[in-house]
Amino acid sequence: MSTEEKSYKNEQILTLLGEIYQAEMAGINRYLHYSFMIMGYNRIPIQKWFRANAQEAMDHATIIGEKITSLGGHPPIYAAKVEESNLHTIQQLLEESLKFEQEAISLYKQLTKAAVELEDIALEELARSFVREEIEHADEVRKMLRKPD
């Protein structure tokens, strides 16, 4: 790969990392909001689960922000837009969570592909680990959405 190609790929990766960073920042806001809106007798475990997801989004944003700066970029100062449906049933919040997780999986898969093309093994492994984590989250949400037999 020529220097010019690598430079172009680096810019593509920085753009994608910026999108991921914004999505993770939005995830912090989303999951904190969800944690505040849980009411009823199941509040405590579900509220804690949403707060743990907010913390994980912050951890991911931190790692991605560090990667952006290590590649010479500048992390965006704003988060992606979080749609507010004003529907706060647990079912609705979980369905919104699943959609968010699926979008994150897509972004991290794009990052994996770009890292492979750039032959950046460290970035590829990071992206693959985030794909695995996000898939595990989506699986958990799907289980939570299932009606018990």
How does the SSE layout of this entry go?
Elements: H1 3-37, H2 43-70, H3 90-118, H4 121-145
Helix pairs in contact: 1-2, 1-3, 3-4
N-to-C series of helices and strands: HHHH
Give the overall average pLDDT.
93
Largest sheet: none
Per the CATH scheme, the topology name is: Ferritin
Backbone shape: elongated
By CATH, the superfamily comes out as Ferritin, core subunit, four-helix bundle
In the CATH hierarchy, what is the class? Answer: Mainly Alpha
Radius of gyration: 17 Å
Q: Structural class of the helices, strands and pairings?
A: mainly alpha
Instruction: State the low-pLDDT regions, or none.
Output: none
Describe this structure in words.
- It is a single chain.
- The protein is elongated and about 60 Å long.
- It has 149 residues and is mostly helical.
- It has helices at 3-37, 43-70, 90-118, 121-145.
- The model has no long low-confidence stretch (mean pLDDT 93).
- The chain is 79% helix and 0% strand.
- It has four helices and no strands.
- It has one domain: Ferritin, core subunit, four-helix bundle (Ferritin, Up-down Bundle).
- The longest helix has 35 residues, at 3-37.
Quick structural summary:
The chain is mostly helical.
